[in-house]
Each structure stands twice: as C-alpha cells, then as structure tokens.
Write a sequence for this structure.
DNA sequence: CCGTGAAGATAAAACCTTTTAGCAAATATT
DNA sequence: AATATTTGCTAAAAGGTTTTATCTTCACGG
C-alpha cells in the first residue's frame, strides 16, 4: 500500500544527505569519519521506521546479487534434495540465497538456464554437471564467473570441484560383497555414462574384484529408458550371471534393483549401494550403503564458491571427500 | 572480462536513442510507431552482438523480479523435493525463477526469510506454512504481496491455497484397513500439530472408524524428538492396542513405523500411508499409499500465483485436489 | 496558406543504491 | 600567523533499465 521508504526518504526526513545514510548503513561510519552522534541518530531513525534497503538497487550498483545458482539433474532425487538443503543452510549463513533448477538431462535446457542465471547477475554457480555442459561452463569460466562443480567433474575443464572418494568407496563397498570362496559372484549395476564419478566407482569395483582374481561383471543401464526396462535388465543381469552380490552405483539403481528382486523373487546374499536411503535398512536383504558426506560436501562447495566470489581464492580448489560405509 | 553491453551501447553504436531500442526490445515497436525498417535494424544488431538486458536494472525499474520464493519445512523431505521440482518447471514456463529455503520448524528463521525475500523484491510467495507464521503472512497480505499456501493453510488467514483432499483421502485409506470383523483394530499415527491438513486426515480416519462402530485409536508424535523415540512410541502404540492395521499421516511417520515393525518384529496385516514413496512397494507388508497429485498441486500453485501477480486474479482461489489411492 | 493529426523518433525522469571527489570548518603543525 | 591536516559531511555520477512527455516532420483537408 504505502510506498516503501527509500534511503533518500530517510535522508530528507533527517535533513541530511543520502551519502551519510548510506555510509552509516554500510558500516563505513568510522572509516568515513561520520560522528558518533550522527551515526546513532541515523541508526535509531532507521530502526524506528523499519527501513530496509532495496536489494535490487544495491545489486545493480554493486554488481553483486548475493544469490547463487544451483543446477542439478533432478532436485527430486534424494541425493540432490538433501544436498540442496545443506547448501541452502550454509549459504544462508553468508547472507546468500539460492535459486535452483533441475536440468533433467536436457542439455539445451541446461545451457539456457545457465545463460538465464548469468543474465540475472548470479554471483556464482554450483553445478552437478552432465555431459555436454563443458562448453557452456567453459564460457562461464572465461567470463570469470565463479563456479564449483560437485558430485562429478568434467574432463578438460579446469574448475573447482568437490567430489566423493568414489574409487575408494566402491572398492570398500565391493569388498563387503566379496568372499574368499572362489564361487562368490558379484556384479556392478551402473549407468551408461562417461561421467567421471561413475568411472571412479567402476574402477573401484573392478580393482576389488580383480584383486581376488574373480570375474568382472558389469551392466550399464541406459538413463532415459522407462523403469520397467531397467528392472528387467537388472533381473537378467543377476540371473544370467548367477550373482550372489550386487553393487549399485547409485541410489535409484538400487531401488530399481530391489524392485527387480522383489518382483521376480530373486535371491541374493548381499547388496551394497552408493548413497544412503531410508529404505535400505527396511528391505530384505538389507542394503549396505556407501554414504557420501553430504554435509561436508555442501560445506566445502559453499565455502569455496564464496571465497572465490570474494577474491580470496588461492587457485583451483579440488576436494575429495571420504565416504562412510554403513554395513548392514 | 570485456564489459557487458548495455542498451545505451546498442543505441550509440546504431546512432539512435535508447528509448527506441527499449521499445523495440519490449515488443512495443508497433504500439509506439517505430518503423519496420528501424525495428529490423535494431533486432538484427542486437542478435548479432548477442545483447542481453540486465535483469537487475529491469527489475529495479519495473518493480518485478520475475522470481518466486518457495518456503517449505524441509526441502530434503521427498514430498517437498518432488513438489519443488514440479513448481520449478511450471514457473520456468512463465519465465519465473524460484528461490527456496527450508524453515526447519524454526519460526524465527522463517520470519526472517520471508522478510529477506520481501526485501529482495520477490514477486510472490509459495509457502507450506507452519504454525506461528500467521502474523508474518498476514503482513505480506496487507502489503498486497501475492501469496499461495499449499499442503496446508492457516485458520484466520484469508489466502489462496492449494491442498489435497485430506479428509476424503484419510477416509478412503482407513477403509482399506478396515474389515467387517469386529475384532479388526486400526490406529492412526499422526503428528502433534494443529495444522489443518493433519486435522483433516484425523477426521477422515475417525469418521471411517466410527462408521463401523470401532474404537478410535490415535497416537500423536512430537515433532522435534529423535527418531528412536518416535520408533518406540509407535511400537508401544501398536503393541498396547494390538493393532492389525495402521494409517500413517505422513511419509516420514510411515518410515519410522516400518522401522519399528522391522526392529521389534511386529506383525501387522495392513499399512496405509499418506504420500507415495519408492520404498512402500518393497517392504513387507507393502504399504498402500494415499498419493497426492503433486503435479496438479504444483500446476495450480504456480498458475494462481502468477495470475495474481499479473492482476488477473478473481478474488481468493482455494483449491482442493483429489488424492489417488494406491492399493498394495 | 494554415491548422490538425499522425508518424517516427527522442530527452529526461524515475527506480534506489553506492561511491568518488570535494567542500568547509576545525584542529594541528611549523 | 600562515599553512597543512583532519574531521564531518555532501553533491553528483554511475549502474542499466522503462516510461512519460515532447519534439519534428510530413500529409492532408479546408
């Protein structure tokens, strides 16, 4: 209803200049040699009338929007949803807001969104990149826009990133499945993707299996296909290879796997999955988890990004966060 | 690196006025009688140099930020994560972005966030309100800020909202559990909350049970307590009342319930929960779901809000979306 | 030849800040 | 006493748009 107060209203009502008010509100009173008395007068008045600066105007002038863009594949995926929650909290502590969006494996939408965010003067990007985003991220870097990747990074791209210890996690996870008995057969269900985190998990699995001289068994699920397809494929993989144990490279693959097991009444001794999920303790057989440290990842991501925004960055920062193994 | 072009750069380079460029870019060429030739010239040039308007400046001038604020209890909760995903998609179609945050049952943080968003000139709010937010939302309404509530609404607050058919959903869900046999005993696990959607679910349960002249058995879980407490409480509730079937008022209560069942080896015939969850088909006994139509809720929320922002609103809009019952 | 209206464009104000450069008065230095 | 420095404050520019009001030119009817 009644128009919001602006800084010049404050100045006029107090019979002083806008500059003075601005300095005081930005904690530059000391530095700019504004008297204590004046400072107090302004602060009291501002408090009394409840003035709040217009952030848009502020951003326009300073070029900083105090907003970060978060781009993930699918915010409804529990891994991303959980990390988004953490990221928001950490960002909040620094006075930053988050705008998010899901890219849904649509490279064009992703590119468009990045441009869109960029046009909105977003201060920095937090991205779980999909293949095909290399150029557009490269463009951001060229324009000196702060970027931190997480969950995966891209080859040929010199960026900051925070990822989990995928190789090691997969290795330890696979060891849970293995058994000295020559006959124990364990397989990996992963996705059809060249994403580096998936490569890491694959290599970890492979190394563990090979160290016991067993056969490396891998099936790669096509991302886009309907879940029923996936379930069938996993069933066939398990049956044809007479598997005793399976390592799932992601959360949602494990869920499809469990559906396959239930639906087709398969019997397996042990299951392990990347990422934790409420359901893993509730099904039979229980699923052990290679749980990523979401809080630490989020903390690092936000800190690295904000350091870079504030010019406090010391070159590239690339962090690998250990996983925790939850044995069930 | 190189400074971004501004509209006045365009104008200078073309030797024309800023106004002309602005009119053309805002599709007002016809209306403002700019010649076809001029229009084409400008459009071609803008395209060639890849000029993009500064959204901050635009927002500052127009007072519209093309951004909506989404406030939920906990974005990592699958219900909210899924709906956030949908909301983002619908908003995107209208050129709107979403900034989100989790309130985590912290009324003060919630208030602060709402004020913060408001200061950022957010065009409208999408809120799943918690108790205690009445006043601050009231304040938004008084200032003519468009608001749509979802999942629940608040008494004494005349707002737009989109909720599910809680009463009916709970009624139908409870009917799934019931059985003509006099001996069948069914209970409701809900939360200790006066939120209206929970009241609705409770009433639906009660009505179904009473219609068969059976005993109404309800336990209310304290929100803040550690999950182990909750699990114990559910166990006791089930055991003490010798229940055959349980209706869970939310997703996460069902999960705690399943943990109780597994951990203490309880045996129940049937379970029903509000909200769908991947895990419900995988556990034993399988959990039937009263699934909310997330897509429709999101669609409505966004449309109502944007209509109101554009002044196309016809008074209060209060929508109740039917639930789908998934029997397992 | 004058007045009217439309066509085609524009100058300048407005949105609300931050920040640079500078002014006047008070104090310190020589 | 004259000069230099510090103190306390401010005018105005800058940031990039949109929009109002206005200006010039040309065509047309009378």
């Amino acid at each position: 209803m009644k128009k919001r107060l602006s800084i010049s209203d404050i100045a006029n009502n107090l019979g002083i200049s806008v500059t003075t008010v601005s300095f005081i509100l930005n904690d530059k009173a000391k530095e700019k040699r504004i008297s204590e008395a004046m400072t107090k007068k302004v602060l009291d008045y501002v408090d009394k009338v409840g003035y709040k600066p217009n952030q848009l105007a502020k951003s326009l002038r300073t070029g900083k929007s105090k907003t970060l863009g978060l781009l993930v594949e699918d915010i409804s995926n529990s891994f991303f949803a959980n990390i988004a929650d953490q990221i928001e909290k950490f960002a909040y502590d620094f006075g930053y807001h988050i705008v998010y969006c899901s890219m849904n494996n649509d490279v064009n939408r992703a590119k468009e969104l990045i441009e869109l965010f960029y046009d909105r003067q977003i201060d920095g990007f937090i991205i779980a990149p999909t293949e095909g985003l290399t150029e557009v991220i490269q463009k951001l870097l060229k324009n000196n826009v702060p970027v931190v990747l997480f969950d995966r990074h891209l080859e040929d791209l010199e960026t900051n990133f925070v990822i989990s210890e995928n190789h090691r996690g997969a290795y330890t996870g696979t060891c849970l499945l293995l058994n000295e008995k020559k006959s124990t057969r364990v397989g990996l269900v992963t996705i059809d993707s060249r994403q580096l985190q998936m490569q890491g998990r694959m290599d970890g699995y492979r190394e563990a299996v090979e160290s016991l001289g067993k056969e490396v068994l891998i099936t790669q699920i096509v991302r886009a296909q309907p879940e029923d397809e996936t379930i069938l494929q996993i069933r066939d993989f398990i049956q044809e290879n007479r598997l005793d144990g399976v390592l799932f490279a992601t959360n949602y693959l494990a869920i499809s796997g469990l559906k396959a097991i239930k639906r087709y009444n398969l019997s397996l001794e042990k299951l392990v999955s990347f990422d934790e999920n409420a359901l893993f303790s509730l099904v039979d057989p229980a699923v052990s988890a290679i749980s990523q440290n979401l809080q630490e990842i989020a903390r690092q991501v936000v800190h690295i990004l904000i350091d870079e925004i504030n010019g406090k960055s010391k070159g590239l920062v690339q962090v690998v966060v250990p996983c925790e193994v939850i044995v069930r």
About this structure: Chain A touches chain B through 50 residues (CB under 8 Å). Residues 78-93 of chain A form the longest helix (16 residues). The mean pLDDT of chain A is 94. Residues 16-20, 23, 32-35, 38, 57, 60-63 of chain A lie near DNA strand D (CB under 10 Å from a C1').
